[in-house]
């Protein structure tokens, strides 16, 4: 049997930076910090899925910042995934989506099953419209939710303001310097689970 040698396509969802620097782009900020934690080259201009975007290419992890607006992320993610599948066997490839999560505390990251409800998250809805786990039974499709806190008031206007207002330097620093360490641990957890299934 060939040696288990996994590769990961990690795509962050958000709105284009720096024009829309808000908590809604928490995935992007975390992705930038992840390059340091994984000891990869920083995010650089590149092309994925025939679209210009920001990429960091490493031996195991391909980190990609989605260049589209959050609510229409799906088609880009699908193209990036198809491009990777042309280069690597599906049995050795995993897709990880990094996205913001209101129900989690700022500074935390957690694994979310692909088939879990998007909870009104339009970026996840867009991705799930075009990518279905049952079409890729050998490839783990996983979400990593990056906590951004929820405001005390639950009305849509307050929530939208919390998510879309310009992000503070302090919160951005947490997303770039603290959260990536948690994400690295979760990536290792996904790999271990995957390995146990493949070799078990």
Please give a structural write-up:
This protein has 200 residues and is α/β, with parallel strands linked by helices. It is 37% helix and 22% strand. It has 6 helices and 7 strands; from the N terminus they run E-H-E-E-E-H-E-E-H-E-H-H-H. The chain has helices at 26-37, 74-87, 122-130, 156-164, 169-177, 179-199, and strands at 7-12, 44-48, 51-57, 61-65, 93-101, 109-113, 141-147. The chain has a 7-stranded mixed beta sheet. A hairpin with a 2-residue loop joins strand 2 and strand 3 (51-57).
* Overall strand count: 7
CA-based shape? globular
Helix-strand sequence: EHEEEHEEHEHHH
Which runs of at least 5 residues are low in confidence (pLDDT < 50)?
Answer: none
| Rg, Å, rounded | 16 Å
Mean pLDDT across the residues is: 93
Kindly estimate the percentage of residues that lie in beta strands according to DSSP: 15-25%
Widest sheet, order of strands = 2-3-4-1-5-7-6
Q: Tell me roughly what share of residues is in helical segments.
A: 25-40%
Largest pleated sheet: 7 strands, mixed
End-to-end separation:
12 Å
